[in-house]
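Possible regression after last week's pipeline update?

I re-ran a chain I had predicted before the update to compare outputs. Posting the input and the new output here so someone can diff against the archived version. Not blocking, just want to make sure nothing changed silently.
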Amino acid sequence: MKSLGGFLELETNLGNHYHPNLLALNSGRNALKILLQNSSFQEIYLPYFICQVVVDVIQELNINICFYDINNHFEIKGDIPENSCLLYVNYFGIKQDYVEQLRYRQLIIDNSQAFFAKPLQGNHSFYSPRKFFGIPDGGYLATDLTIENLDLLSIDSSEDRFTHLLKRVEFGPEEAYSYFTENENIINNLGVKKMSRLTTKMLQGVNYDSIKNKRRSNFELYHSLLSKPNEYHVSIGKNDVPLCYPLVVNNNQLRGVLRDQKIYIPYYWPEIEDRYGKSNSASRLSHKIFCLPVDQGLETEEIEYIVNKIQKIIE
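New output (post-update):
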């Protein structure tokens, strides 16, 4: 029996996981890793435009990588044999309609940017919930593969991974950023474990419906104000819940000017140029795409403020 009484524990509103039937692990990276460890994949087609973490996991397991390009709709460019194993990123959480059209012998969907996307039967998906919620770690895996020795996995512990979250509340993102990057480095080196009890409780307390609606409405507001200068003719499906609003413009000053205004735009992904060189299409795209925040903490007037600053720079 668990311990009863004594001092009160951290307040959490216990509800349900959004993905209650998926394998709950301690990171998205480890969700991919345990999938590949239990597969027979010898070669995987991978987009050039992808996080280095995914590349590292595949290379660590000595699986051959064949890279492919994406077009200006962030969809597969060129022909790839349908009997291939292919990994596709559900970019920005708004490519689910396209994902459902893909037909490959083995399909792995990177839903790190698409937490709310439902897994598709017969395919594999992995998720990184901390990109959508203020939690320290965690990941989910959807697969029909048998995961060997699953019962032997220990439960992770997260109590030492909250500094960046607490400092952001108390002092703001500038004070917390170095702790955030430190936590990301820790997560990248975690062994495969089950999701911690603390992260589990936090994810059971999320108001998922409210967050869905807020992210979608924030996205639509950006789109109403920035669709004209945006080189990406972006659209959002009825079931999509975006990670960000992807603005594609050719302006080398934008990111730095916004940073000076305390508007922080993530860079997806700076290591691409080092990996492929400046002339690669993914490298060029990484400099042109600005992932504007749509998170649930943003209000209408704050988005309008961000857009106003952007318009002054790119007009």
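Follow-up from reviewer: compared with the archived run. The beta strands are 23-25, 43-47, 64-70, 76-77, 85-89, 106-110, 124-127, 139-142, 244-248, 289-293. Marking as no regression found.
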